[in-house]
Specification:
Elements: H1 7-17, H2 22-29, H3 33-40, H4 48-58, H5 62-75, H6 85-93
Helix pairs in contact: 2-3
Length: 107
């Protein structure tokens, strides 16, 4: 069930399971009710300290919250990035090796 949820959906579902209002969760975490509302609607992510406090209050590990964030972020990765020749030249001038789609990395 959690695998398909964003962090915001997880926080909202877990909060309701714990029978807490947004305001009650905000008090326990030490943030405003609007911060909880923002996180629950995926309008932003809690910073490291707030993430730790959310984990403590919700009795889950910070690692589990990080896994949810990473799963969500991986779904939103755009692999079709169009970089201009000028950007490529600038990166290569700084010593970066760019691997173009379809190329294999040289070792």
């Amino acid at each position: 069930m959690w695998a398909r949820m964003s962090l915001g959906q997880y926080i909202s579902t877990r909060r309701k399971h714990m029978r807490l209002t947004q305001e009650e969760l905000a008090d326990k975490v030490g943030v405003s009710k609007s911060a909880i509302a923002k996180w629950e609607t995926d309008g932003g992510l809690p910073d490291r300290d707030n993430l730790r406090r959310i984990a403590e209050v919700m009795e889950v590990s910070v690692d589990e919250l990080h896994r949810i964030i990473e799963r969500t972020n991986m779904k939103n990765v755009d692999y079709n990035v169009n970089i201009t020749p000028e950007v490529i030249a600038a990166l290569e001038s700084y010593g970066y090796k760019l691997i173009r789609p379809g190329e294999k990395e040289e070792r």
